[in-house]
Structure formats: C-alpha cells, structure tokens
Design brief:
With 251 residues, this protein is an alpha+beta fold. It folds into 2 domains: 107 residues, Ubiquitin-like (UB roll) (Roll), CATH 3.10.20; 116 residues, no CATH class. Helix content is 25%, strand content 24%. It is built from 7 helices and 11 strands. The strands form 3 sheets. It has a 5-stranded mixed β-sheet, with helices on both faces. Strand 10 and strand 11 form a beta hairpin. Helix 2 runs antiparallel to helix 3. The radius of gyration is 22 Å and the shape is globular. The protein binds iron/sulfur cluster (SF4) and FE2/S2 (inorganic) cluster. The site of FE2/S2 (inorganic) cluster (FES) has 12 residues, from loops.
Length: 251
C-alpha cells in the first residue's frame, strides 16, 4: 500500500491506483473529458490536471494516468490547477462552441466566452471512440488521421470502415454526440447469395458503412447487425444459436 496526502487528507491506496481513482473514491471532484473506466487512460484532454508535490518539487500532472506514489502530496484545487483547467476548457470551447458537454464544463469553471477565435468542430479528439473499438470490441475500425488542426478520427484512408461491425460502441461512448448511427426499416441490402433482400439496415454515418440487421429467431425483431453476430461467434466462441435471439426473448 502507498501512503500519500490529497487535499490535506492522509490516504492509502494500492500502488498502481491513479490519483483520479483515489479522488473519486474520496468524493473529490476532478473534471474529465477523455477518461472512461472501461478504457486505458490516454491523457488527451488535460482537464483532469492536479498539482503534485514530491520532495521540494511541485508539478502539474494529469490525474487520470498518474499513479499515486509514497509520500506525494496532491492538491486538486489550487489556483495554478484551476488556471490550467480554465485554459484547457477555453481552448476546447473555442474549438467546439456548440458542444453541450464542453459548454457545461466551461461554465463550471467560470468560462462562458473563449478569448480565442471560434471554430465549429464537434470532435474534441478525446480518442474514446478509437479506444473502445480497439480495447473493448477488439477491432481497429477507426484511428486518428492528419496532424495539427486537421487531425480527426476516420477509418483508414478515409474509406468506408472495412473492419467496422456496426456495434455502436463508439456512438455510445462519444461525449459530444458527433458519431451517429441510424436503423432504417425496409431498405434493400445484399443477401449472402449475392442477391438483394429487404430488411432493416444500420447506417454508421461517420464511418460510411451500412449493415444488414439480423432478425431475432424468436420474435422477428431486427436487433443486431449480422456481421456483429458473425464476429462474436468467431471471436468469443459462443454458439450461433445463442446469439441469434434478442435479449428480450432469451430464456
Ligand atoms: S468522435 Fe467523439 S469519441 Fe471520438 S475523438 Fe471525437 S469526441 Fe472523442
Ligand atoms: S481525463 Fe485526464 S487527460 Fe483527459
């Protein structure tokens, strides 16, 4: 166990625990934008900064990926910390002035208008969509493309995402809501024998892909992309019959 101090309170935690985890366990609020418990920390947004003192040295570190150390003294709410957070959120507000989560975080930090030139972007480059796809789903359908101001999330070569299975994990995790999918009824699609079948289709707009939805073998409701079922049968070794029935109809 590691012993340290956070906001004047003596605390203990296991050695690989991050400052953010400890703070959350102690009900200390640290704002985050690119952190998710299910994913490895990436340290992209820098909103979660705290001040960390070890010996005579004081540093600003990102709490989501900085593990606690013996004897460290952490402060989560100093003027220096708040100044960094304000600058981070101000830059994000200038980049994404119409994104609700950014406006809310900015307001919490007392920023309503950025001093910088406004853009109208809807992606904060947090990378959660890329990480959930790779780390949780086990696919690498999307990644970062471009540099500097033209950096964005895209499938390889900006082509339709060949590896995408239409699971929607990226839609679920995206904090800004910029990734969208739509289930369209009575649309034609290619059948496995090369012909055309009518049915429900899932469109992943951002990744330029469309998927035929499989119908539940029990109630007939379209419930999962066929390609996702095939992927799960192969990757998780689950009998196909178990995956071809929707959650409601499962015994
Ligand atoms: S699309 Fe959404 S989840 Fe992906 S990097 Fe942008 S804001 Fe983050
Ligand atoms: S939450 Fe820590 S850098 Fe984004």
């Amino acid at each position: 166990m590691i012993t340290f101090t956070i906001d004047g309170i003596q605390a203990e935690a296991e050695s690989s625990t991050t400052i953010l985890q400890v703070a959350r366990d102690m009900d200390i609020n640290i704002p985050t934008l690119c952190h998710h418990e299910a994913l490895q920390s990436y340290g992209a947004c820098r909103l979660c900064v705290v001040e960390m003192q070890k010996g005579k040295r004081t540093r600003i570190v990102t709490s989501c990926n900085y593990p606690v150390e013996d004897g460290m003294v952490v402060r989560t709410d100093t003027e220096r910390v708040l100044a960094v957070r304000r600058l981070v959120i101000e830059l994000l507000l200038a980049r994404c002035p119409n994104v609700t989560v950014i406006k809310e975080r900015a307001q919490e930090l007392g920023i309503t208008e950025p001093r910088f030139k406004k853009d109208n972007n809807f992606c904060i480059l947090c990378g959660q969509c890329i990480r959930v796809c790779r780390e949780v789903v086990g696919v690498e359908a999307i990644g970062f493309a471009g540099r500097g101001v033209s950096r964005e999330v895209a499938p390889p070569f900006f082509d339709p995402a060949r590896q995408c299975i239409g699971c929607g994990s990226c839609v679920y995790i995206c904090p800004t809501g910029i990734i969208t999918m739509e289930d369209v009824k009575d649309a034609p699609s290619h059948s496995p024998d090369g012909g055309s079948v009518m049915g429900t289709q899932r469109i992943m707009h951002n990744w330029k892909q469309t998927f035929r939805m499989a119908e539940c073998k029990s109630c007939g409701r379209p419930f999962l992309p066929q390609v996702q079922i095939d992927f799960m049968v192969e990757k998780c070794n689950i009998p196909r019959e178990e995956l071809e029935v929707c959650k409601t109809c499962k015994p």
